[in-house]
Amino acid sequence: MFPLGTALLPGGELPLRVFEPRYRQMLTDHIEESDGRSTVRFGVVLIARGSEVGGGEVRCEVGTMARADVTDRLPDGRALLSGTGTHRFRIVEWLPDDPYPLARVEALPEPAPSEADLERLHSIDQRLRAVMRETLEAAGKDADTIFAALDIIDADPLTADLSPIYRWANRLQVEPHDQQRLLEAADAAGQLDVLDDVMEGLEARAAFGRD
Q: Organism's domain of life (predicted)?
């Protein structure tokens, strides 16, 4: 397990610098070599209180499994990782941190958005684009070009199996607190409630900037 000051959503990217002795040991114990690539799998949980360094932090109970490529590793075990979130899990039991955080977990099923949920997500997306268009055009930038790039990202076949709710949230880079609310939501409607709150905050900030 890798408790962090940020949450990770399925499909989200996670660059990591491994330098603490406990995580260097974790990397040594769990690194996998295949087809010339070095990879490691671990769970990521958001730290509710405390620091990433040193231990003793209070951790959230729902997180995301990550698969990471080891992009650079020094002889002393320090390393750079480039990870991606794969699926959610819930902590069943925290085990002693010996020599690094360990837990028993259960995988969580991913909420399947209904047609009504997808329509609601589309409405939220249109609200985002309206805010973005106003902001970009005020800065003298071409909004349509940026929207076209977003559409290409959304159509990436590598994310075809990923919930469109996660795709939307990862694209927007939702704050850790809201990412955690997304992870803990029981269904797609609950996740959309979170995105609606995020969108209301963006709209309020945009309106404040116009005043």
A: Bacteria
Q: In the chain, where do the E strands start and end?
A: 2-4, 13-18, 32-34, 37-49, 58-59, 62-73, 79-95, 102-107
| CA gap 107, 42 in Å, rounded | 13
Rg (CA), the chain: 19
The string of pLDDT tens digits covering residues 179-190 is: 999 999 999 999
How far is Cα 184 from Cα 190, in angstroms, rounded to an integer?
9
With tokens 């309106």, the residue in question is 207
Whether pTM exceeds 0.70 = yes
Rama region for 105: left / alpha / beta (φ>0; ψ in -120 to 50; rest): beta
| DSSP bridge pairs for 45 | 3
DSSP category for residue 159: G
Would you call 116 exposed, middle or buried from its count of C-beta atoms within 10 A (0-12, 13-18, 19+)? exposed
Residue with tokens 């939501």: 185
